[in-house]
Batch of 2 targets.
Target 1
Amino acid sequence: ADKLVFLTSWFAQAEHGGFYQALATGAYEKVGLDVTIKMGGPQVNGMQLLVAGEADAIMGYDIQTLKAVENKLPVVTVAASFQYDLQGLMTHPDIGSLEDLKGRKILIATASRNTFWPWLRAKYGFEDQQAAPYTFNLQPFLVDPKAAVQAYPSSEPFEARQQGKDVKFLLLADAGYPPYGTTIVTTRGMLDQKPDVMRRFVKATMEGWKSYLANPAPANELIKRDNSKMTDERMAFAVDWLRTHKAVNGGDAAAGGIGTMTEARWKQTYDFLVSAGLLNKETDWKRAFTTDFVRDLQVTLD
Amino acid sequence: MRPLIRNEWFVRVAAPLLVGALVLAVWQLACQTYEVPAYLFPTPTDIAAKLASDLPGLLGALWSTLKVTFMAFAIAVIAGTALAFLFTQSRIIEFSLLPYAVILQVTPIAAVAPLIIILVKDTTAALTICAAVIAIFPIISNTTIGLKSVDPSLANYFRMNKAGRLQTLVRLRIPSALPFFLAGLRISSGLALIGAVVAEFVAGTGGRSAGLAYEILQSSFQLDIPRMFAALFLITATGVILFLAMAGLSNLLLGHWHESALKVEQ
Amino acid sequence: MRPLIRNEWFVRVAAPLLVGALVLAVWQLACQTYEVPAYLFPTPTDIAAKLASDLPGLLGALWSTLKVTFMAFAIAVIAGTALAFLFTQSRIIEFSLLPYAVILQVTPIAAVAPLIIILVKDTTAALTICAAVIAIFPIISNTTIGLKSVDPSLANYFRMNKAGRLQTLVRLRIPSALPFFLAGLRISSGLALIGAVVAEFVAGTGGRSAGLAYEILQSSFQLDIPRMFAALFLITATGVILFLAMAGLSNLLLGHWHESALKVEQ
Amino acid sequence: MGPASQRAALVQAAAAKPPPGPEPHLQPPVVEVLSAEKSFANGTRALAPIDLTVRAGEFLTLIGPSGCGKSTLLKLIANLYEPTDGRINWWRGDFRKVGQDGRRLAFVFQDPTLMPWARVATNVRLPLDLERVPKPQATPRVAAALEQVGLGHAARSFPRQLSGGMRMRVSIARALVTEPNLLLMDEPFGALDEFTRNKLDDDLVALSWERKLTTIFVTHSIYEAVFLSTRIVVMAANPGRVFREVVIDEPMPRGDDFRTSSRFADLCRELSAALTDASIASQGKGAKTPCAR
Amino acid sequence: MGPASQRAALVQAAAAKPPPGPEPHLQPPVVEVLSAEKSFANGTRALAPIDLTVRAGEFLTLIGPSGCGKSTLLKLIANLYEPTDGRINWWRGDFRKVGQDGRRLAFVFQDPTLMPWARVATNVRLPLDLERVPKPQATPRVAAALEQVGLGHAARSFPRQLSGGMRMRVSIARALVTEPNLLLMDEPFGALDEFTRNKLDDDLVALSWERKLTTIFVTHSIYEAVFLSTRIVVMAANPGRVFREVVIDEPMPRGDDFRTSSRFADLCRELSAALTDASIASQGKGAKTPCAR
Ligand SMILES: Nc1ncnc2c1ncn2[C@@H]1O[C@H](COP(=O)(O)OP(=O)(O)OP(=O)(O)O)[C@@H](O)[C@H]1O
Ligand SMILES: Nc1ncnc2c1ncn2[C@@H]1O[C@H](COP(=O)(O)OP(=O)(O)OP(=O)(O)O)[C@@H](O)[C@H]1O
Ligand SMILES: O=[N+]([O-])[O-]
Ligand SMILES: [Mg+2]
Ligand SMILES: [Mg+2]
């Protein structure tokens, strides 16, 4: 079997379900792959480990991938698990929409300052002074009834509700934030030398997503083994969210199948970055992705 | 009170414990009076309850962190003293290399962790290296100063007797350096511990071998703040024990001769 | 070579710079020979080019970090020596409080950063507190040991002359403690710097007041590795300068009397 | 005023004074050692119970074999050690009396005990600083004390730049600068050449006389003991104890005429014999092997 | 063998030896000081150019006012200082000759210079350890050396638990244990009582004689200098220099008969006069105020 190391972007959670499901159900094995899933974390720089050969593929973010291409890194996105980035903002219930946050304190992690924060700034006229540090700990949000915080739908709102707080979640994608979510990024070298391995990996993973949404139990067992703090309740909440918001199978995936990406969407992301001054206009943005691996996949939910 | 202050057992054991108990009591009372929610700042009893209920898991994590701590501390001590020996071999070596040793201390481990992970495949080894890098500088710096703090007359005696480098090191420089070296150990032992935690934050692993940093991060993400404090308690308790061990070692090695540890004859 | 080794200027200035230059040359050569890509490990020239082109931005970030570093260092020195004075007032205070001071050192700043952010509204103040907490322990520990390292005969002399507490402190304990205190400063100055960086990593903000940690994180996130190394270079250079300043201070204060700094009469 | 003429003036002033009032043994006691004994933490029995009264104006010398407890006794008297048993009175009171007006104590330790980080002048000024004597008043006194020990030129040196004898003289100057009433000196002149030593012996005699100083002095020199003392306590070791007392009832102040008298030689012989007896008595008892032979 | 009988045995052994071969001045030089001078970094001119040859078997004593450079000269001879100008030969060669067989040097510093962290026995064993003498051989030698200075019972004490004189005796034992050929001693007996001192003086005479020791000795005691020496160098200060030489041409070994002879008293008077001259000659020149009067 061909060995492949995949590095996720965070501690194991339901948002990684497709990969763990493919591992748990033997989908990878079936296509002749020996896959190892390594967990990322808040300070783990996956892209660096990818180009250093520590991983064959990683879970990526479009904006980081475009920046990497700008810096001449030989990396490329081959598939997108989610049709939009799951990033959003969590607010106290008095907030109706993103516009209402103007002038309010928003807790933003350092890594987000060059991703969706400039987008919010440009779109809603937010100021840098509004941004306060966020360390993935909700205490500052909970004590400040006027604050908002960056959030993943299945994480922060879940924690806040566990503490009995009524909160709102506003998905950025709903307001037009263009990047895909939870992509698969690999190196040009991998594509040149073992395109077939990657092809099998992408396919098995997308099968994994399909299977996961149908019955998450096998993956959840593996997730709990890697991340002992993960609970069934939490994962059930997340899977439910993914299902109802059609993160995996909505948008272009409805027709093109799970994992689908389009050049038009990448262009949107590129345009936003250039307009925000975050990316050199000369960047060859088309090298940041290839649709070769998902074009004809056609893994769809029944 | 007078006689109590003179009582060794009271001074060394009871008084510190009393202070600890007092702080806990005030903390408990303050939290209860102002009804501080547990997700913000838990009471000692919240923490104790969590500690009791989650003990097996927390102890497992503590053990993982301790393994890294001890290995890193050992490496820091051995490599640090070796470097200090090297630096005191000649002034030119000291001036040429010692300033660069600072680089070990002031390089943010987060920035170089990926490089270490790339170079060292084994995660535990990578964590150990990160923690050792964090812990080594106080040993290097203090030991270097210590090795130079030799009574010039005794140094003359050794020189006159044509003592070899190794003899001078073992019989003169090392004993003279002990007070500074042991002061370095006190600082370094704590840094090895916090280094192990920080390394785990940075190079992060969950799974079976996850240490206390993972417990803290997860508890913090999940707003299980009592559990986070329970993990913090284990870390700080370990730190205090390490410190007391180093202080005890100082007493053992210096108690019979060095002013800092000597009980003055009255 | 002989006369060069004896030449003060060569030993103190030229030799360290030569060593630095040598390391850079080997690094450059190795990277070029093995064609290591810049995004993995940049060459010194890559870094220098980036440094030159991005200097204004990087210097601004450095200045932010330095402000936090200096304030934190000042706080650590003042509070650390004050605590050390307190601890040496009586054995019972020392035994009751000193072990708990370790908690300052071994608490992961990442874990308590949210609390500090909640309590301290001003980000710079919060960063300064975090960095000071990281830097304070070596001062406390070394100064406490130093304040106890008093020649017993001189202590007797002061006691016999009914010297007051303050007089004994100023005229006897402080000078006696200097070698240890200054050794603590060397460690602490570096820790204040890295503490400022770590605090920013953990609790940092971008915007105009962003420091070097932000530069490093963003460069790392955006895979602009030469820029990351340029920022690292600024940090380490600052660390080396701080170290040399502390070493110079030691020489100034101890050069005329303490073995560690004395040039032995030949 | 040069040091030599200064010294002459001192001696003259002393000679001009009326003789002291009542008999020495009627003077009030300055130090009373009442069955004080001392054992150390490691079990060494340094002093068996000692009884000793030193009266105002006395010049008492302790002499005895090395290790017999002379320094220990002096430190007990300076309140640097607490007696294991028994007690000590100062001016008929406890140690709080020391330092009150006219009850100033100075101690020259067996080792120089200087602050290595301070210059000679600063070292000598230390006791005045501790008493908060203003600098303008302290400075000339420091200079005078340094002149007296022949170290006027070394005021700005650091201790490590001095010879052994010079360091000891700094320590002596530091004691003299305070104009003490009770002066404890532990082998102060042991490291000095005979010429300097004789000069300082003369100065000390003049000083004691002029200022009605009470002095407790330790020396190994029989000649010095006889020349300086009104009373000599010969100590023996194992355990440390008073072995014999020799009273030197020569008039004060004394000078070279006394040094060259046959009475002086007789007294020296007497003391020497006592010392030999004490040395022999110190052997074998208490310790496994003799402490000194 | 008790210490007293041991000492008697030594003296007897010494007396039984045949007289030394050629005349003293025909013996090979052990130390040659050739116009060596010494100034310190702070500008102090401690020694003007000194010329001095010490031959095998000589017992040379340096005597002079405090601060005249005796310790400095001894340290030059022990290669602890480098002469600012001039040079020094050991056994007609450079310092590498020292330590080679039959060319062992030992130095008793003016201060005890003990390792505070080591027990007395370990301190005394140090030079043997440095020479890698096996422990079984070293141990009895250490015990004998400690007995010789009367400290057999203190072997397991730490230096800080000893009296000043006891510490100095440890330092002496550490020098004697190596059985040196060239012995440098800087006021070794200054802190000792006369009884112990006389005993050690006697031992030293016996030892020098028996082992054909070359000794350079510093003392402030005129009697000791005359009793021990074959030659006495009187030094003066400002700058430190050789002021006069006194040869003591009494036969060796010497004993109490010499101490009580009128020849001894004459020599003492002669030396005392020379010393007074040297002290006076030391004044005023070079330093602003006299270094010693
Ligand atoms: N700190 C100490 N701990 C244990 N024993 C001590 C201590 N100080 C002194 N001694 C012992 O007490 C005895 C008396 O010591 P002391 O210093 O009083 O002697 P001394 O008469 O002054 O001798 P010297 O003439 O050599 O100075 C000695 O046997 C010594 O070993
Ligand atoms: N390290 C030094 N730096 C500067 N000057 C020094 C140093 N050591 C000694 N001296 C000076 O050199 C001179 C000679 O000192 P040395 O110790 O040789 O005198 P000494 O004859 O041994 O006196 P003593 O009898 O008091 O021991 C003194 O004036 C002293 O101040
Ligand atoms: O990256 N986040 O998990 O929000
Ligand atoms: Mg004594
Ligand atoms: Mg000397």
Note: Chain A has a mean pLDDT of 90.
Target 2
Amino acid sequence: MSRVAHHTAEELADLKHRAPLLRLDGVTKTFPGVKALDDVSFDVRHGEVHALLGENGAGKSTLMKVLAGVHRANSGTIHLNGEPVEVNSPLEAKARGIVLVHQELSLAPELSVAENIFLGSLPTKRFGLVSWKRLNAAATHILDRLGVKFESYDRVGDLSIANQQMVEIARALVFTPKVVVFDEPTASLTDAEKVVLFDVIAGLKKEGTGIVYISHRMDEIFTLSDRITVLRDGQTRGTLNTRDTDEDGVTRLMIGRSLDKSARKAAPEPGPVALEVKGLSCGDLFRDISFSLRRGEVVGMYGLVGAGRTEIAETIFGLRAKDGGEIRIDGAPVDISGPPDAIRHGVALAPESRKEQGLVLGMNCRDNMSLSQLDAVSRGGWLDRGAEQAIYDEYAGRLSLKAPSWRTPVRNLSGGNQQKVVLGKWLGVKPRVLIVDEPTRGIDVGSKSEIHALIRRLAAEGIAVLVISSEMPEVLAVSDRILALYHGRLAREFAAADVTEDALVQAISGL
Amino acid sequence: MADTLASLRRYMVIPPIWLFLLACVAFFSVLTDDFLAPGNFTNILIQTSTIGIIALGMTVVMINGNIDLSVGAVVALAASLSVGLQDQLGTLPAVVVGLGSGVALGLLNGMIVWKTGVDAFIVTLGAMIGVRGLVFIYTGEQSFFAMDFAYSDFGMSTIAGLPTLAAIFLVFAAIMHWVMTATVHGRNAYAVGGNREAAEHAGVRVGRHMVINFMLVGFCAALAGVTLSTQMGASTPNLGRDYELWTITAVVLGGTKLAGGAGSILGTLGGVLTIGVLRNGMNLMQVPAFYVLVVMGVILIAVLFIDARVNRRGAGELRL
Amino acid sequence: MTKLDIQSGQAAPRLGVPDRDALRETLQKQGILIAFALFLVGFSLMSDRFASWDNVSTVFRQVSIIGTMALGVTVVVITGNLDLSVGSLLSFATVLVVDLHDQIGPAPAILVMFAATLLIGCVNGLLVGYGRLNSLIVTLGMLSAIQGLTLIYSGGQNVDIADQEGTWFAVFGRGFLLGLAVPTLIFLGLAVAFHVMLTRTSFGRRVFAVGGNPTASAFSGVRRARVVFSAYVLSAFTTACAAVILGSRVMGSQNNVGQGYELLVLSGVILGGASLLGGSGSIPKTVIGVLILGFIQNGLLLMGYPYYAQWLVTWVVIILAVWLDVASKRGAFFTRTS
Amino acid sequence: QDTIRVGITQNNVGVDSYQTTYEQAFIEAAEADPAVEAVVLDAGGDVARQIGQMRDLIQQDVDVIVIWPTNGQAVVPVVRQAHQAGIPVVVTNSQIAEAGFDFIASFSGPNNITQGQYSAQMMCEALNGEGQIVQISGQPGYTTAIERQKGFEDELAASCPGVEILETQPGDWNREKSQRVMENFLTKYDDIDGVYSGDDNMGVGALNAAKAAGRDGIAFIGATNFAVGYEAMGRGEYWGSVYQSPVEDAKNALATAKAVAQGEDVPFLNYFDTPKITQSNMDEFSKPVF
Ligand SMILES: Nc1ncnc2c1ncn2[C@@H]1O[C@H](COP(=O)(O)OP(=O)(O)OP(=O)(O)O)[C@@H](O)[C@H]1O
Ligand SMILES: Nc1ncnc2c1ncn2[C@@H]1O[C@H](COP(=O)(O)OP(=O)(O)OP(=O)(O)O)[C@@H](O)[C@H]1O
Ligand SMILES: [Mg+2]
Ligand SMILES: [Mg+2]
């Protein structure tokens, strides 16, 4: 393996005027019922971070999968270093130095971190024996670079999602790749890990690697990228120099209009308390949590990953047994035995992990949406398809879901659109108390503000909403009050009017 | 070195089935006199060696997310060939042909699963029926008998006090344990079963990998057929019926997931021995034939039940 | 703001011809039907008896036992579980109903048999549903236990109905209604009922959800244990129905009549495209799967091959049928896996 | 040493009434005889298990072993082992392979070849030497099935060339399976004059199929007369069979074993009588208990 020579700054500047490292021309890809890519062209230069932007379902992941040999395009060409190449399988892509860090985790849970990182190219001794020494040394070397807190021999299935994402990223660093594609790498990373990732990207850049970066987070795009290409409906809408444009310009290209940032209406007078939690505790996951939600109110819950927010939500939803404290709904103490009971009490939880907890991937969009309210859409056990369709139509519309048809299995939707189905499924319940856990993970900026508006509107209709989020702008944008969690305890409560970013950061860091 | 140890340690974890095995051994030792006799243990080892050898290969195939229902028929085919061809070819070449037939059928199964994408369950179910047909075509319904009594004497011989067949089983188990924990191929089996797409994207040649595993289980089944026929000095066309179900049961009891991605040879060994000990113990206790069936069924379920209680996760688990 | 290379013009309208797509989608999913049709044509060409009404109705009658059982097993498989106990449960139920027939009369015998069989279904359901135990081992254990129970009950003796002509019990296996055999009617009637249940009721939806993703269904308020429990009871129910047909058809029973049926039934279900991983499957396709099995056996017999040659052909046909099915969904004959 | 310890390993008790009745009769006979103590084992149809049981019996050093072979070839080596250990072996019900003849003291049981021949003779008689028949054989690969089929086919070819076997298919000793096979035969052949089945259980299945299809005038001949077959014969629907009593079988085996153990001379092939039973002579026989 020859390392790519380091370039001086001048050389790098010069590179921009050279032939691109990678060029995709006229790529078209259709799935049954969808033209996911329509004559897309795109190029990446040495040492460049090229951001790929677009709404959910615009075709970003598909384009990168074509590049990485996962999908075969209907037509189009790929040039690497000016040479036309065929990429018919992931293996071929790898051999040509093209690495894709997938949007969806693709790890083998039973294997160790090191084995996952070197999957497909484990170092060997004689007789096909794994050389554990070299494997772990090499893996540790990469992990040190990423500054992670787990060991190379830990079982991947035991890691948190964020850490699994780090393993996925570590994979990209095994060989000196020519092109690395990051597909929404930060969707489940914390700030600390993000910093590490950006360092890694900077390092790759210095080595002359071409980088494609997909994200829905504008701040990241503008921090990292040199150029931005916007996809819309499977077509290229344009490529811009990052320093020549701004968020608004890109957004307009992406969704055809500017974002209405003033979506936040004045909060109506909140109604009576719908949910009250007193001294709720569960093992060492969280202790002594007390708060209340009023009808018509949106409360944000903010904290670091592992602060216990999800567990609190799960406990309220009856998925965990509490070992102390009390939950009241509309003033009456309740003992919720499980989700069916919770739903009966008017509590809904849109979970954070869409694939594991949110969706039946093989089931179509409509049926997924109505799954949380089967009793409501059936009479005497008989399904009322009209009622189901009505729910689907309403929330597909309100969330601008992009699906070929209601019959499409959610497996075939883009990541962001899958998340929309999860939301639609729980918004449709019209609960008294709605808990949404990381509601906009992987959702494009346009839809994100629509979802925020929708949450506000639901509150205005008299629902009490708890929004769990790791994104400060989101919490700030939607909440009337904010609960800051630190290490399983309620650190502070803020009113939206007098919260500052600094105070919030301090509160969740235990300061 | 420390790293190597640490990374190896988790592959040496004792699977829970061994606890039940111990419990069963204790139970029968108390309730029957003959159970603890050394001759009895070698008996159990011989009796479990057939299913056991197949189970070793089945474990690998199941870890990588497939299944092989044709093993019982392959047992019959390999036994028939290795006994039936002795007159023409001589003993050793006949055995080689028998073993080869298993590998060849494994290759066929594997290639079909790989190239057509048809589920292994269907492919090997077809083979389970069809290979039995091959056996009947070859044997013309007849049983074969090894004129060479050395053949059956081999099945009864011992090495250093250990019956040869038991020794073959244990040595083979050790080899397979090593393959699954220390070789690239073994580790890839977990990757392919745990997340096939991921393995494919990472450049594991999934198709070839699966074919090799099918050949391996085919070889194991054929080897079991050969050892079984040395026990009998003969072969019968109906040999190995139902073996697929008992093999899979032993493997699953040992902790291998039906869906793939997890499992171990050690666990399988425990599963195989548990079933063997149960059968043997009930024989010694002279449980009447009809009741053996009931007791066997109930114990299988009880093992699972206790296992689930013992392994119940703590407070971290969701109430689903 | 410098635009480097913005494309001109509006985005072209997306390719979307829903009707044609829906049609193609539907056609694509019918690979198994095409396979079935091909075999029927093939057999008809090779044997002039094959395509006769007599023969077709005979095959329907013959598959009705396995077919009826396959309906319940389909539900279990869709929930992501297995039921290997149906074979020995069939033996148990048949021995019971036949034996009781002469002792307490047909109607009470049927009632008692259904009660006992459903009870065993409940045990399966409790263990797999509420106990969350591995369904393969539970039902295999039950296979063995039920076999033992049957033998203990009958003392290992065959059971027979003495008065075969005079009992109305004969109608289930031997009767005809409107020119159709009663077993066929029971099978197809139950198939329609099960199909409606799976596609039109909330229970059916829950069955698919639980099999597709148990965790997500639990988060959605579906009671997994209850659904799985019900699936096993349904499986026991269809097995009991099959036992009535079998007992009446044969007017007697051996203790092992259902031996090996578990795999036969399961093959029918899997041939119909249900996945062992759960979440997919359909009654009409299970019916087709079972019919394929029945027609293969019948067709090969009519052609007069020796039985082992039939086994070889069965091998090829089963794989070809499913291959055609998966190939049509994939749009290619071979996989791209390296 | 006063009592004789007889160890028996049976084929597959419970799989059909014959074997079950045999076992009961054997146990009863042993209990009735104060000079005999019996160790009764069942191989459950599994050759490997039967070999294990043989070894156990050798280990226990019983005075004589009775074996109902699950397979005539596969048990030869272990029978040889017993022989070498000085334990006489009596084979019961179905014969072992010729290679093992040197190692056994005696065979006690029916002659399946003869039974096949009897059936062929009855078939010839029923059809007056002229006609087309089908055959439903037992489970493929099992000695009894093979021997009966062989006896039947050879005798028919030799002494009754006018009767032609259209086709043979296995019915696996299963009445329902045989019913299905017969239904297909009926579709396939417009003209069937007779049906030979490997036992009455299957024969009655075939009869069921013919009755359901309304096809009269078919002569049904079976073997191992079962109660259902006996009754059908009484109704005039079943032509004939071979009478074989499991009780006789069991008693014969025990008596042979006892004699062998006591060092008496016994004939090597100790067949017990299995006469033809037809509609005309059935009154001479009591209805089988199974
Ligand atoms: N395997 C597939 N089968 C059918 N359709 C698919 C498949 N994969 C993607 N699609 C469709 O292709 C289109 C583009 O999807 P893609 O995943 O590329 O979007 P994306 O831009 O990555 O969106 P997101 O930001 O939500 O991840 C979507 O309409 C999606 O439904
Ligand atoms: N340090 C850690 N090591 C391993 N797993 C962790 C760690 N911290 C948290 N986890 C796991 O990660 C998951 C997410 O943590 P948790 O749900 O407690 O955090 P949260 O406050 O809800 O944050 P988020 O919603 O951002 O994930 C949980 O399953 C938790 O067990
Ligand atoms: Mg995407
Ligand atoms: Mg969380």
Note: The longest strand of chain D covers residues 163-170.
